[in-house]
Every structure is written in C-alpha cells, then in structure tokens.
Amino acid sequence: QVQLVESGGGSVQAGGSLRLSCATSGFSFGTYWMGWFRQAPGKGREGVASISDAGRTNYADSVKGRFTISKDNARKILYLQMNSLKLEDTAMYYCAADPERVAGVGQTTDFGYWGQGTQVTVSS
Description:
The protein contains no helices and 11 strands. It is globular, with a radius of gyration of 13 Å.
C-alpha cells in the first residue's frame, strides 16, 4: 500500500534552516505529483510547494526564495529544504502524493495520499 513518512522536523531559531524528508513506498514515485503542505494551530492546511513528475516546481508566495522542494526518484524520497525560517513557518508539515496533474501548489483535495506529518517549530 501507499506509504509516506515524513521526518526532519524539529525546533529551530528564526533565521535557521531545516530539511524535511518524505520517504515513500507502494507507488510509482517518479510518475506522481508530490507536494508539501502545512497546518498551523487553528488554521487550515495550506499548500507550500509542489513538484511534478518531470521536476517542475511551484511555491506559495510566502515561501518563495526560502524553501526548495526536490526529489530523488531512485530513492523515492521527497525533500523540502527550508532556509531563513520565520516564526510564521511554525506548523505541522505534511507530504502528499497524487497520480494526477496538480495546478500550482495544489489544494488538499488535489492529493489522494498523505503522510502523518512532522512538526516544525520556529522560535525567536
């Protein structure tokens, strides 16, 4: 079955960096659209970045220039490099996958498979 397992979250000071990973199995990773979402306490889940099967990337305006999404098709791992972290980046981060094309960073309804999330906490 499809599995997505995030890791790499943690606590970091503002201005710092983290790299999230999403290990996957159970589907043809290289042919799927992949995405990162986040959900802060009391807020809805929002798209952060997406990457197409061909490697085309999209970013939310709030993270452009700071976050980089990438993937390793051979290892079936999705990454999110997060630099210059801000207090407002604090959230649970989820990776997501879908076999169909996604427009932009996508919405939660665009992705059929989800990981369990990894917490990112940015402090001052």
